[in-house]
Amino acid sequence: MTAPDDKPGHLQKPSVDLPTPEPDSPRLQRKPYKFATLCATVENPDMKDQYGSSSVPIYQTATFKGMGGDFDYTRSGNPTRSHLEHHLAKISSAEHAFVVSSGMAALDVITRLLKPGDEVVAGDDLYGGTNRLLTYLKEHGGVIVHHVDTTDPEIVKQHIKAGKTAMVLLESPTNPLLKIADLAKISADVKERAPAAIVVVDNTMMSPYLQRPLEHGADIVYDSATKYLSGHHDLMAGVISCNSDELAKKMAHVINSVGNALSPFDSFLLLRGTKTLAVRMDRQQTSAMAVAEMLQSLGFTVHYPGLKNHPRREVHERIANGPGAVLSFTTGDKAMSERIVGATRLWGISVSFGCVNSLISMPCAMSHASIDPAVRAERGLPEDLIRLCVGIEDPADLLDDLRHALLEAGAITLEQGVDGHHYIRASVQREGRTISRAVEKLAFNEQERPKKDQLEWFVSAPGKVILFGEHAVVHGVTALAASVDLRCYGLTGSRYDNKVSVNFVDLGNFYQEWDIAELPWDAASHISPGTDHPDELDAKLLDAISTRALTASSFHDNPTGRNAALTFLYLYMSLCAAPGSSSQGGPPAFHFSARASLPVGAGLGSSASFSTCAASSILLATKRISVPPLPAPSRPPQAEGEDDPGHVHVSHAGRRAIPQSTAGEVNKWAFVAEKVLHGNPSGVDNSVAVFGGALAYTRPGFTRKSGMEPIQGFKSLRFLLSNTKVPRNTKALVAGVGVKKQNEPELVNGILDSIQAISDEARRILADPELPREQQVEGIGKLIVENHAFLRELGVSHPALEAIKSMTASFGLQTKLTGAGGGGCAVTLIPDNFSEEKLKELIADLVKNGFEAYVTSVGGSGLGVLSPYDPAHHGLASTSSETEGSEESEDEHAEPLRSSFERMPVDEFTRWAEGRGRWLFV
Ligand SMILES: N[C@@H](CCSC[C@H](N)C(=O)O)C(=O)O
């Protein structure tokens, strides 16, 4: 008799060649059954029914009579369950399968293979319940858990340690962001690095129909059978499958010991559900594709492996047979998402997925609510994410219901186009409700012909890269920074309702408006023209804005948008006299929109370029600065330093430019804005954003001469910027270097001296007009390699940065981290003669590995202004008398830019902005 722990019901090896019939004869060969046939055909030759029942009977009994038989007690084994387990093993390409009371019970059984001290590598986008169980094991079971980006096999590999890693737990696609992990590659890497470790895959999202991870090297696969396997949301169950007899034996022991095996009735239901798995899934998947395409065509960010642009789609297609029927998308606004979810009728608001009925949910509030909000934010799980689980209803009804919900929630609007009505994505929301385009048009007076002083101001400013000396700069070493041609853009337009408003499309579509009279003017001190802002920020004003103007609860979910609004209001209220206090007619009513073509928070100076846009826009709107009219191209340059219309300066790209005095004024206020955003900035970022080019900066308080000096003669260089997308903690990284310096002063001081030598040499190379270009590029390349090595020694690199470094090195290129390190971005120097083909190949490799890559040239122009905008004039910003007449007549057709500015997809933005006309630059 088998020991009770190893009941045969759990350990029977299915006859894998059945039910596929044997070939009848060499001439009349039968093909193996396809998956759908296997699903529908429940047959276990070892357990023939005594009456030949077509459906497996329910053995609704707790005990079995006699001794020495196959079954004694249903906790240990039950014939209905055995039939089910045999069937599931067959369709999962497994030797063994077990069914337990839920998906989480399955994971519980599997994690009981762990012991204290074991390390688990799991994903950073994963089901909330899985995260909860792993956290429990971490806190109570002595297990060490690493949550890493499993979309990058290299990152996973770096966490696998022989003798320590006991389990690698994967989801692909992940729940809820549908990210793809290369199960085959990771399984192979685990076997190579830590042969004793087991690879476990949660296959719930795919089901065995679409993906069978055991075929790709996984050791154990589990499914929440509550989902696709059962398909009807009328039972809870979990399935565990594996090929190893040893693992199976251990897990059978656990299941029998804890008593969480599936009940006979639920086993019956699950067996019944499984028969229709393929046919349900086919239908659900086809409809999911239609839903994903509709949402994407409306401009939402959609996560679905069936979409052409889904990251690592090719990996998914290699390991799976279809994209499945779960997708998720963001709206940019949590309240908006809540309204959409609430407005659907056919889509049921419910956790879970895999049901024949379509479901809609907000993971952060539902399936993933058990993950701490701070952890969710750190791992990039958007609060406004909506997850859709597509069912078998008629797809036309599903699309229609969803479209109605989007419309009702104000996420899309129905607009009349030349060729009929179209749904388009609405970009403007107010807290708690959406304003209709008609009302919005009234407020912004779009139909009215813009008068000269009401025309829009369109500005832009570059981000920056630190070329040399990051971290060391904190300890008095000179850093070199240069502008990049990824920019932030700002647009102001008059309002006619005594309100001021902001919209930050790329910061979660943050929109807010204020009645000017109701702003906390009593706390503001007007800084009159010609006077500088004091060194210290006005704490009273900051507090008054925070507590009286930025109180809406929705701000808490969007701290970046909130801080940008705080910065805008601080500048606005400092630069404008309070209403009624001035003969000028009080603070101007206008709308300010900002967009960013550079990644926010990746160390590329996005906040400084935003600060520059906000400062220049408010200074222009309040008429505290003005830009010279565009001179006729043939006019000769004026004398150097003359603040006069015409060619006072030539920008870094050789373009006609904004006077230095105007740029200086913008820079002062951009620095104030930077202080609001960062507390104690060095001023480097805003100086680069305003003046462009490159500069050398040495911090005061050390032995070297401090200050900021432009690097004259800097010639633009081409760099590849790679964003690891790994969030970093600059403060902690800077502090870490400080601690290292304290603990190992000799080593760190030596490194700092070497970095100073690198900065000095780079500065010499960059400014030397006689050095041939190839030598300049070669010299900079060498310094890049050296500087990076020192930064790594300081402990501020990151595996993702190192991965980028080795990928670029294989193309013969030099790379270093830029900024704080610990994630963020890397810069790779692209020599002038580097082939475009190879560059494309490299970018494709980087993207394939989960990075973002931007080709950028550094050292270009600073602040740019295109205004007042007048498309009828091809953007000529002329206010001079010679062109005034024609402007008046052609102005008739001027259309405000705002609508395109706020709707333009970010990847098309720069080209669109440049095409608006002739820009003036610093
Ligand atoms: N309250 C439950 C939520 C279950 S979510 C179920 C499913 N895996 C999904 O992703 O929707 C819990 O806290 O576990």
Global structural class? alpha+beta
The share of residues in helices is 25-40%
Instruction: Give the end-to-end Cα distance, rounded to a whole number of Å.
Output: 88 Å
Q: Could you say which overall geometry the principal axes of the C-alpha atoms support?
A: globular
Strand coverage percent: 15-25%
Q: How many whole angstroms does the radius of gyration measure?
A: 32 Å
In the CATH hierarchy, the third-tier topology of the domain at 4-275 is known as: Aspartate Aminotransferase, domain 2
* Uncertain parts: 1-24, 428-453, 631-650, 870-894
CATH class of the domain at 4-275 equals Alpha Beta
Number of strands: 27
- The number of helical elements comes to 29
Question: Biggest sheet, in brief?
Answer: 9 strands, mixed
Question: Mean pLDDT score, rounded?
Answer: 87
Level-2 CATH architecture of the domain at 4-275 = 3-Layer(aba) Sandwich
What small molecules does this complex bind? the ligand N[C@@H](CCSC[C@H](N)C(=O)O)C(=O)O
Per CATH, the superfamily of the domain at 4-275 is Type I PLP-dependent aspartate aminotransferase-like (Major domain)
Draw up the topology in text.
Elements: H1 8-11, H2 35-40, H3 79-91, E1 96-100, H4 103-111, E2 119-123, H5 128-140, E3 144-148, H6 153-159, E4 165-171, H7 183-193, E5 198-202, H8 207-210, E6 220-224, E7 238-242, H9 245-258, H10 264-274, H11 277-297, E8 301-303, H12 313-319, E9 326-330, H13 334-343, E10 348-349, E11 359-361, H14 373-378, E12 386-389, H15 395-408, E13 412-417, E14 420-425, H16 437-444, E15 457-468, E16 479-494, E17 499-504, E18 510-515, H17 539-549, H18 559-575, E19 590-596, H19 606-621, H20 660-678, H21 684-691, E20 694-698, E21 707-710, E22 717-723, H22 730-743, H23 745-767, H24 773-793, H25 799-809, E23 815-818, E24 825-830, H26 836-848, E25 852-858, E26 864-866, H27 881-890, H28 898-903, H29 906-914, E27 920-921
Parallel strand pairs: 2-3, 2-4, 4-5, 5-6, 10-11, 17-19
Antiparallel strand pairs: 1-7, 6-7, 8-9, 9-12, 11-12, 13-14, 15-16, 15-26, 16-19, 16-20, 17-18, 20-21, 22-24, 22-25, 23-24, 26-27
